[in-house]
TrEMBL record:
One of its GO terms (cellular component) is cytosol. Residues 5-374 form the MnmG N-terminal domain. The gene is trmFO. It comes from Paracoccus sanguinis. InterPro entries: FAD/NAD-bd_sf (IPR036188), MnmG-rel (IPR002218), MnmG-rel_CS (IPR020595), MnmG_N (IPR040131), TrmFO (IPR004417). Its main location: cytoplasm. FAD binds at residues 9-14. Keywords: Cytoplasm, FAD, Flavoprotein, Methyltransferase, NAD, NADP, Transferase, tRNA processing. NAD-binding protein involved in the addition of a carboxymethylaminomethyl (cmnm) group at the wobble position (U34) of certain tRNAs, forming tRNA-cmnm(5)s(2)U34. Catalyzes the folate-dependent formation of 5-methyl-uridine at position 54 (M-5-U54) in all tRNAs. This is Methylenetetrahydrofolate--tRNA-(uracil-5-)-methyltransferase TrmFO.
């Protein structure tokens, strides 16, 4: 049996990396600092804890790049996707999960694996030898972050991420709110009624925007700059970009009919998505915020149907760190200057639960292959995983490198057959090609 591979961080990426390594028969040591050393966003010491949304986004593997990434992770026997499927909740065309049950199941699966051992405590330096995967996520500890900067000679980049609030479902006024997924999307009644919808008139929307802009916000520490990832903008930042921005974003009223007043079209709609299997908790979709707690309760209770809402968790903001991977990491996810060190997850500059877990999957498979005397390259760029790896390890412009979700813009263009393809034909062509190429890569991995 080979020496163990050490994984620092038991989030999405670290958990998936550990699982993939053990599938190859190689032992793993997981180093996790929680709960002994906490973070702003985490509540537990469990593996793969979901700290922001409980959604893995679209599960459409024909027309959506995220859905294709889901498909590839399932094909590769991914632990994260297996547990997400087991604890999925109705969410229209999205894959949402019961976050606590999901995290507990990932933890149980890893603790039951004979080749996995856990070593609690913080790793605050880069080890000089051995095989290591650093999957410390966006909340890499200050000490480890400083060690990485010192070793690479480069400053860690940073952006800010915000967390949406969670509401107790029994405090939502259902004489105002109604159940419906946008465009009635979903194959079952549960899917088609997966969201709670709170309508606003124009006057209510304008008053809400005024209160949002005037609310007291969290201050940044000296030296911090507010660079946000566009996929997780706080609602007040969106409102500052224009009074109609939210109405064309998370509060868009399209694809919905007010069950209480079907003849009246809402000017804006706030959606809440189920957060647990019991249906007792709902998160406010797209409502990440840096408002102070007192201001949050006042502003969010202005939403029709939430006047008496009780909050299980209020929103917050935290600093995320990531490497300038195009200059520091090779296509095997190794630190160029120290190839015995790999990085995976959000710290590499991918954004999103699934993207992070996918980089953990690849890092784990690559590390296991190396431990067994083989070299495993990344999947082709025509696949979702391959497109992400290519982007963060050389495809992106280093000077302007920012966190990136998987999207078809990262894929090589599909050759036109018989003329220019529209989206309706082009997206299935991307995913059909990706499935074929990923299946071929997996057969060699």
């Amino acid at each position: 049996m080979s020496d163990p591979i050490h994984i620092v961080g038991a989030g999405m990426a670290g958990s998936e990396a550990a699982w993939q390594i053990t599938r190859a028969g190689v032992p793993v040591v997981i180093h996790e600092m929680r709960p002994e050393v906490g973070t702003f966003a985490h509540r537990t010491g469990d593996c793969a804890e979901m700290v922001c949304s409980n959604s893995f986004r679209s599960d459409d593997d024909v027309n959506n790049a995220v859905g294709q990434l889901h498909w590839e992770m399932r094909a590769a026997d991914g632990l994260i996707m297996a547990m997400a499927d087991r604890y999925r909740l109705p969410a229209g065309g999205a894959l949402a999960v019961d976050r606590d049950a999901f995290s507990a199941a990932v933890t149980a699966a890893l603790r039951a694996e004979p080749l996995v051992s856990f070593q609690p405590g913080e790793i605050d330096a880069l080890p000089p030898d051995g095989r290591w995967i650093f999957a410390t996520g966006p909340l890499t500890s200050p000490a480890l972050g400083a060690a990485i900067r010192a070793e690479t000679g480069a400053d860690a980049l940073a952006f800010f991420d915000a967390i949406a609030p969670i509401v107790h479902a029994d405090t939502v006024d259902m004489s105002v709110a109604w159940r419906q997924s946008r465009y009635d999307k979903g194959e079952t009644e549960d899917e088609r009624t997966a969201y709670l919808n709170c309508p606003m008139t124009r006057d209510e929307y304008e008053a809400f925007i005024d209160a949002l802009l005037a609310a007291e916000k969290t201050e940044f520490h000296e030296g911090e700059t507010a660079g946000y990832f566009d996929g997780c903008l706080p609602i007040e930042v969106m409102a500052e970009r224009g009074r109609e921005t939210l109405r064309h974003g998370p509060m868009k009223p399209v694809g919905l009919t007010n069950a209480h007043k079907p003849a009246e079209k809402p000017y804006a709609v706030v959606q809440l998505r189920r957060d647990n299997a019991l249906g007792t908790l709902y998160n406010i979709v797209g409502f990440q915020t840096k408002m102070k707690y007192g201001a949050q309760t006042q502003v969010f209770r202005m939403i029709p149907g939430l006047e008496n809402a009780s909050f299980a968790r209020l929103g917050g903001i935290h600093r995320n760190t990531f490497l300038n991977s195009p200059t520091l990491i090779d296509d095997r996810l190794r630190l160029r200057a120290h190839p015995h060190l790999r990085f995976a997850g959000q710290v590499t500059g991918v954004e999103g639960y699934v993207e992070s877990a996918a980089m953990g999957l690849l890092a784990g498979r690559m590390a296991a292959a190396e431990a067994l005397g083989r070299d495993l390259g990344p999947p082709p760029q025509t696949t979702a995983m391959g497109a992400l790896v290519h982007h963060i390890t050389g495809g992106a412009e280093a000077k302007s490198f920012q966190p990136m979700n998987v999207n078809f813009g990262l894929f090589p263009p599909v050759e036109a057959r018989g003329g220019r393809r529209g989206r309706k034909d082009r997206y299935p062509a991307y995913t059909e090609r990706a499935k074929q190429d990923f299946t071929a890569w997996l057969a060699t991995a």
